[in-house]
Amino acid sequence: MAEERKQRMTATAAAAKVPKMVRANFTANLKAKEEGRPVAFSFIVNCYDEILRAMDIVPAWAESYSGICAAKHDAGRFLEKAESQNFSRSLCTYATCGLGFEYWRNELGGEMPPNAPWGGIARPDFILGTGQMLCDPRYKWPQAVQHYMRDVPAYIGGFYWPPYDENMDQREVENYYLKYAVEELKGVIAFIEKQTQRKMDWDKLEEVTDLVDRTWDMFIDAYELRKVRPTPMDTGDAMNTMVPLAFMLGTQEAYDFYKDLYDELKDKIERKEGVAEDERYRLLWGAGLPPWFALGDFQYFNSKGAVFPVERTYREAERIDRLHLPKLSDPLERIALRWMRYWTHWYDAARKRKGSIPEVERLIEYIEDYQIDGVVFHKAFSCRTWHSGIVLQAQILKEVYREIPINHNYYKRCGNRYKYQ
Ligand code: SF4
Questions:
Q1: Which domain holds residue 177?
Q2: Is residue 357 included in any domain, yes or no?
Q3: pLDDT 10s per residue in the chain (421 long)?
């Protein structure tokens, strides 16, 4: 996902390390396959990170591979393969690319499609989907892919949290959702135990859960250093530095990465080293995935004195103390409640402001904390989850908050190039 055709100039040394880390993730799943270690297709923000790491399962990140194909300008042929099977272009393009890839691999009798970017993605031993965490393709992508790998079993858990209701405190029903989520997590453990003949190491699961708590804190502590003027890091880099949080959560390497990033940003702040030479406008990347093929465009903004000290996209964590978690001894309850409290974190604020919604409250918090002058919403024809509701959020933001400048943008294909609109 974070690899680009040409190396983009990054503001931080941490972001510059990420393409190699993404590559290492893919080398790891191909190598594990060769060595007969279990490999699972997994999806970003799946709530299984601790379980996978505690059971030594090597994740092969399905969306990440589609992102790599896109960054390499090589997704078109896989999308066309999927279309030849009547998959609609209106599907999530990450899923469509992955389905086209697997259709082709199946056509070749299990061989990797020719010149697959980075040598391809390992054929998994099993697939782990999580419906509603984040989206419905987490149900259907694994099921559709099984057409092309009928011998590969899938576990598709459901993970829900209380929906927002302006007349109800979510804590009144939270326990009910918690019980359900814990049962689903037990289900994924039982499934992996059956597939691998390995037993869960509960002490290790607890250790990994502690490590994830610390990683969330370190991630937020590092990112919040960007509040400083001039900001030492902006969204162009954050689209790389999200990789350890999204794809390496539960590893010491992910924690160390954010600790190094924290130290690096502290040094930059001390030296008053900003992303833009003359920082004049502070923008919030309000929603949407970035154009992976044009991350260098953030430097265009920087050249005009505009920086993005904060973004909603890929900020899938919060400081643990802000979630007000009770003391729980069961690691599965801790994992489930951490996610649930994260997803419902902005509910209380939304109830206090007439006409607001949690996602907008989150934007308002960032606007105020990071001294934001305007909000950019990027509409990409790719992941459906992270782009639905953008127009509504922008409208509500103006209605309930203030007349802050808002820009909606997208990239339009012109021949072989993409133009910013
Ligand atoms: S819609 Fe988004 S989150 Fe869901 S599978 Fe597609 S890329 Fe992943």
A1: 13-188
A2: no
A3: 444 444 557 789 999 999 999 999 999 999 999 999 999 999 999 999 999 999 999 999 999 999 899 888 899 999 999 999 999 888 899 999 999 999 999 999 999 999 999 999 999 999 999 987 878 888 899 999 999 999 999 999 989 999 999 999 999 999 999 999 999 999 999 999 999 999 999 999 999 999 999 999 999 999 999 999 999 999 999 999 999 999 999 999 999 999 999 999 999 999 999 999 999 999 999 998 887 777 888 999 999 999 999 999 999 999 999 999 999 999 999 999 999 999 999 999 999 999 999 999 999 999 999 999 999 999 877 887 777 889 899 999 999 999 899 988 766 555 555 555 6
Ligand 1 mean position, distance from CA 385 (Å): 6
* Residue 129, domain CATH: 3.40.50.11890
Nearest CA to 142 out of 107, 208, 188, 186 is that of 188
- Cα(317) to centroid of ligand 1, in Å? 18
Count CA atoms closer than 13 A to 355's CA, side-chain side.
9
- Contact assessment for residue 128 and residue 146, using Cβ atoms and an 8 Å cutoff: no
Pair of tokens at residue 340: 């649930």
- Residue 239 domain-assigned (yes or no): no
Task: Compute the distance between CA of residue 266 and CA of residue 177 in angstroms, rounded to an integer.
Answer: 40
Number of domains in the chain: 1
Ligand 1 pocket check for 94: Cβ under 6 Å: yes
Q: Is the pTM of this model over 0.90?
A: yes
